[in-house]
Amino acid sequence: VLPNSLHARDIAYQIHPYTNMRRHERNGPIVIERGSGIHVYDDQGREYIEGLAGLWSVAVGFGESRLVEAAARQMAKLPYYHTFTHKSNEPSIELAEKLATMTPDGLDHVFFTNSGSEANDTVVKLAWYYNNALGRPEKKKFIARNGGYHGITIASGSLTGLQVNQRGFDLPLPFVKHVTCPHHYRFAEAGESEEAFADRLAAELEATILAEGPETVAAFIGEPLMGAGGVLVPPRTYWEKVQAVCRRHDVLVVADEVINGFGRLGTLFACEHFGIQPDMLVVSKQITSSYQPLAAVVVSDAIYQAIADQSERLGTFGHGFTASGHPVATAVGLENLAIIEERGLVANAAKVGAHLQARLRAFADHPLVGEVRGVGLIAAVELVADKASKAKFDPPGKVGFRFFEKAHEHGLIIRAIQDSIAFCPPLIITEAQVDEMIDRFARTLEDIQAWIAAGMPA
Ligand code: PLP
């Protein structure tokens, strides 16, 4: 690391999220300088396929000039305004209308935030405020799943069901209860079918609601297809079963589509794919292709009407962010959604996604591969120490991290979630580009196999 280089200054001054800081001090960053389509380039001139679309988010690819121009136009006209106390701005109104129109029936009112974490905090507050409005202030608990990811703020980090986000932070707060992760490969009992597994999890949810007292449970939250927990696809009937349990006990259903939304699974929303009719839908990431920070909670009319009545009684709905409904972010969101529609990127995700899934499933017989899973343009390949027993590597994550680093040498950026290799490329990817991505993956896998055979030297 050269003195005064970007690398040295990064080490000296920047604290990185999700980073082993001492390791970072030793190895320094990969500084990404620019991007074009599905590719990004670092400051050493190396090219990578962005197999995770940044953080599951750059739907339209890098270097999309229409988004740059939409931002510049809005910056010139009105770079900022807020939406507090009856103020509004045109792009936020248009995007709210657009979201109400495109999301599942019955979701008609939009609250904007900057991030998915803030959106999920907003969900918690909306559910609490709603139950206060209905005169049942004790109905406040949330049920989430182990392995779920909903963000890292104190409330959303409590909904998250991953150790890494809770260890060391005194989370979760006690209003959240976690139930079993709907991942059949890891959590089904011996010989249990997908259907029986889904029945068992629905029964577990119902038992949890009854044990807590239905009068204390506000909502159930889940990602239709879990992303950051490992790209975990629930059994086909899981959602319809848990939804029926929630309805029986007047528990709101919240679909967190921060990763799934806007075409990732080959349907506009994953709710369509799994038959979910949520009371609240959370979106972010692909809403702007992450060219601007933006998230939104889209809520049912019933919730909206109750909180509107309550806010009249209390005088104000005391929640919101300086950048809620930011005109530049929402203008970029509108243009981005227009691109997704005009270029048929949802259909592309279905078509090219089928190709990606087929190409990856060809690795199912590989001795290191325990499971290949995914829907549309999101997938994971789980590497295991022993295929027959599904035993994990010891320690879990060591092989995945090595894979993650090796993949860089082959010009590929993926996410390693413990030892699962996750793919979530931009929605613009072509079949030929998927083939190139898979070739780079296969070359990395060969290296990893040789490294494991050599006893995993440091
Ligand atoms: N919900 C889901 C499903 C996510 O995947 C994420 C981020 O990856 C979040 C919420 C949190 O979003 P943010 O990182 O913008 O706070």
From TrEMBL:
Domain of life: Bacteria
Keyword Transferase among UniProt keywords: yes
PROSITE patterns, sorted: AA_TRANSFER_CLASS_3
An MF annotation (GO) of this entry: 4-aminobutyrate:pyruvate transaminase activity
UniProt-listed Gene3D superfamilies: Aspartate Aminotransferase, domain 1, Type I PLP-dependent aspartate aminotransferase-like (Major domain)
UniProt EC number: 2.6.1.96
Cofactor: pyridoxal 5'-phosphate
Any Pfam family matching the protein: Aminotran_3
Keywords: Aminotransferase, Pyridoxal phosphate, Transferase
This protein's record includes keyword Cell division: no
Protein family membership: Belongs to the class-III pyridoxal-phosphate-dependent aminotransferase family.
Listed name of the protein: 4-aminobutyrate--pyruvate transaminase
Organism: Labrys monachus
